[in-house]
């Protein structure tokens, strides 16, 4: 069920393996994360686990790639103070100093949400912490290979000050990527396959979409269509509370009107409290999963060749199996995943708990064991970024062009 790399993805992988500093971007659905996971695997095989720093600008993105936030890795906290003061603080932090000293490759996902100011602090800290590399201490990032990934058409950077700039506004960015030709754009979209829809989505990445794109989305307004239960699509909304309300309504209908039994699964968390909180505050991994037969669900992790984002329906509950293949008492949902661009034909699978990690320097700081499922009648635009939808009802709640792009960028086809 997995696919091979496209030609343009292979070119990026080759540049990375040659030791180049690389920035690559692309529209939603071009396989940025899929490629990044391949890159991480190849680099760890080449250099070792401790030498490859896998980070992201947000906790949600970090958990998705099995890494940590860039702030945690770098030991810079909130990046308050001067570059010199921050570097001194990092030098005094033995664990952070050791991480920088060992690092051969620094990976940062969701680079659009990291400000130019923090990016430049990271570079300064790296040079100052790595003086024993005498021939490299004058190089950018102290000679560390830098790989950054993200879509600047999505969520902008955040920062402590009023004036926060994109990373590409800095001279450092130009030195690392543009002047040496290490800037790549993924263009092949695996998620959508309709030409007009693709063109309209690309227009939404701009500040001023053209009239044709505006007309296209206006003609898709499905607000006059009656939604019946069970609803065969996903509604993309702006807040978790709205998504929870819609999902609870549909689940309650299954339980009360159709007499389906509710099954509840609580997450099992371990690790340092500060990092365990990341699962609740910054990830799409629920503390509690409640499902019944007929529940619409979305897969939130790649499992046994099934891709993150697949839609499915709970059709049964069966006894789970242990690592030896023996049946256990606990029952888990059987999900029928629908045919989609990711799955050529419907497929049923017993869904058992899986484990997520927050790691730093290959040390597991926190873990969560939970079913890799969320109720799937509604989802927020931000959480929809890390998965792909086959159908949707409406995006009328997405009140800004940014939200519209985040929401529609995850959709396969328009109707």
TrEMBL record:
Cofactor (UniProt): Mg(2+)
GO molecular function, one term: 5'-3' DNA helicase activity
Catalytic activity: ATP + H2O = ADP + phosphate + H(+)
Positions of transmembrane segments: none
Signal sequence segment: none
GO biological process, one term: telomere maintenance
Keywords carried by this UniProt record: ATP-binding, DNA damage, DNA recombination, DNA repair, Helicase, Hydrolase, Nucleotide-binding
Cross-referenced InterPro entries: AAA+_ATPase (IPR003593), DNA_helicase_pif1-like_DEAD (IPR010285), P-loop_NTPase (IPR027417), PIF1_helicase (IPR051055)
E.C. number(s) listed in UniProt: 5.6.2.3
Record domain AAA+ ATPase: where: 18-178
Class of the enzyme per the UniProt entry, highest EC level: isomerase
Family statement: Belongs to the helicase family.
The protein's name in its UniProt record: ATP-dependent DNA helicase
């Amino acid at each position: 069920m997995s696919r091979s790399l496209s030609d343009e993805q292979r070119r990026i992988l080759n540049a990375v393996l040659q030791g180049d500093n690389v920035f690559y971007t692309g529209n939603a659905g071009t396989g940025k994360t899929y490629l990044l996971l391949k890159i991480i695997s190849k680099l760890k095989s080449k250099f070792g686990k401790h030498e490859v720093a896998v980070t992201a600008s947000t906790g949600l993105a970090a958990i998705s790639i099995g890494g940590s936030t860039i702030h945690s890795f770098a030991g810079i906290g909130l990046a308050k103070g001067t570059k010199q003061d921050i570097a001194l603080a990092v030098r005094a932090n033995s664990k952070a100093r050791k991480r920088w000293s060992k690092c051969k490759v620094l990976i940062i996902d969701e680079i659009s949400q990291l400000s130019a100011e923090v990016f430049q602090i990271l570079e300064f800290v790296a040079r100052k912490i790595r003086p024993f590399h005498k021939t490299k201490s004058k190089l950018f990032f102290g000679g560390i290979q830098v790989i950054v990934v993200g879509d600047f058409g999505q969520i902008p950077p955040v920062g402590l000050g009023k004036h926060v700039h994109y990373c590409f506004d800095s001279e450092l960015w130009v030195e690392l990527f543009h002047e040496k030709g290490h800037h790549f754009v993924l263009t092949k979209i695996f998620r959508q396959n309709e030409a007009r829809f693709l063109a309209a989505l690309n227009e939404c990445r701009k500040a001023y979409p053209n009239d044709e794109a505006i007309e296209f989305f206006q003609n898709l307004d499905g607000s006059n269509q009656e939604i019946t239960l069970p609803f065969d699509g996903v509604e993309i909304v702006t807040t978790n509370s709205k998504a929870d309300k819609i999902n609870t309504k549909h689940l309650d209908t299954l339980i009360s009107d159709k007499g389906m039994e509710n099954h509840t699964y609580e997450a099992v968390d371990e690790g340092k409290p500060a990092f365990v909180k990341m699962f609740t505050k910054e990830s799409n991994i629920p503390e509690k999963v409640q499902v019944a037969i007929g529940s619409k669900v979305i897969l939130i992790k790649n499992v046994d060749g099934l891709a993150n984002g697949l839609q499915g329906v709970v059709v049964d509950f069966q006894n789970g199996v242990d690592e030896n293949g023996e049946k256990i008492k606990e029952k888990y949902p059987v999900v029928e995943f629908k045919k989609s661009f990711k799955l050529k034909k419907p497929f049923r699978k017993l869904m058992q708990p899986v484990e997520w990690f927050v790691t730093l320097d290959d040390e597991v700081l926190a873990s969560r064991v939970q079913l890799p499922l969320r109720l799937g009648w509604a989802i927020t635009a931000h959480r929809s970024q890390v998965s792909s939808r086959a159908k949707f009802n409406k995006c009328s709640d997405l009140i800004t062009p940014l939200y519209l792009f985040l929401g529609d960028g995850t959709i396969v086809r328009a109707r």
